[in-house]
Amino acid sequence: MFSSQSTKTVIFAAASVLALSACGGSGGSSAGASRDYVTGVGSSTVYPFATAVAEAYAKTGVKSPVIESTGTGAGMKLFCAGVGAQHPDVEDASRRIKKSEYDECVKNGVKEIVEIQVGIDGIAFAESKKGPGFKLTPTDIYKALAANPFGKPNTAKTWKDVNPSLPNEPILVYGPPSTSGTRDALKELILEAGCKTDASVKALKDTDKNKYEAICHDIREDGPYVDAGENDNLIVQKISQNPKAMGIFGYSFLEENPDSLTGIPMSGVTPTYQTISDYTYPGARPLYIYVKKQHLAPIKSLQGYVDTWVKSWGDNGLLKQKGMVIAPADVRAKSADIASKMTPLDPSGLK
């Protein structure tokens, strides 16, 4: 079963282009300029959940929020570009906002940003039901996908080149683009974990951070890793049709396609609802929405949209039905308090 994400993206994106045009494109505007619906951009992982919340909110009689799947990084650029009706109200993110992005927001007049954790997700590694039955570690992934594993050019062609115990099959991994929060999480949660197994490289983190990040985070561009764009359903299709391929996407896409895909264990832990919710799966990560507080007054339906997120993330709520891993009760309580009071983010802990 494939979800209708790609179709919805086209519809919502087209609507958004018209909306932005009506608001005067990217020209200057004050926060007082208004529209009668919410706009959101960002993560392809969060996108199915954001559209589900938008549809639920629209059933209350308001105009449906317009949501675009742009990728977390690209969405941050749009979100932080300024205040006014031509700029998004909400950023959906599969990673936390970076200090550099926050600084860009402030530079452009976006000075009160509300950070709300809406759930948990896992970076799922998956293969076809007809695949070889991979069992991997972060070190295997790093050696297969890094541009220069441990500082040397990557010459691995097959999984057996990476680890003699793995299948003698060509490395072919479909994954997210550089604009994606999933790509950032892949680098920080998986590739870096494999990279740090080398003591000399690990030591670079304190002596030469730029070299350390290049060695640990740069992904090869010679074919084995295929950038599939901001369309996780395309990755699902590719690996469903090719038993020798592997895909990387948010856990909900694995859960939506149990008849065609199987999750690949990472360090002996299979991606499941439970292993992601308790963070035993190495690729588990929090999911966020960021709200532009300065838009609350002019965009009358913005608070209601945020409130609908809160109503939807319970143990038996809409988001769990859509495949989201629900955050622990204490995290949900804290997030609900932030959403209610619209408490701005303290940037002191950002990296």
Description:
The protein is α/β, with parallel strands linked by helices and 351 residues long. It folds into 2 domains: 5-121 and 286-349, D-Maltodextrin-Binding Protein, domain 2 (3-Layer(aba) Sandwich); 122-284, Periplasmic binding protein-like II (D-Maltodextrin-Binding Protein, domain 2, 3-Layer(aba) Sandwich), CATH 3.40.190.10. Helices cover 40% and strands 14% of the residues. It has 15 helices and 9 strands. The chain has helices spanning 5-22, 47-58, 72-79, 99-107, 138-145, 159-162, 181-195, 199-207, 209-217, 232-241, 251-256, 273-277, 302-312, 318-321, 329-341; strands at 39-42, 66-67, 90-93, 113-128, 173-175, 225-227, 246-250, 261-263, 284-292. Strands 1, 2, 3, 4, 5, 6, 7, 8 and 9 form a 9-stranded mixed sheet that branches. Helix 2 (47-58) links the parallel strand 1 (39-42) and strand 2. Helix 2 packs across helix 13 (302-312), helix 5 (138-145) crosses helix 7 and helix 7 packs across helix 9. The protein starts with a helix and ends in a 10-residue tail after the last helix. Mean pLDDT is 90; it is low at 1-32.
Shape: globular
- What is the helix/strand order? HEHEHEHEHHEHHHEHEHEHEHHH
The CATH topology of the largest domain is D-Maltodextrin-Binding Protein, domain 2
Radius of gyration: 20 Å
Number of discrete domains: 2
Q: Please give the share of residues in helix.
A: 40-55%
Q: Beta-strand percentage?
A: 5-15%
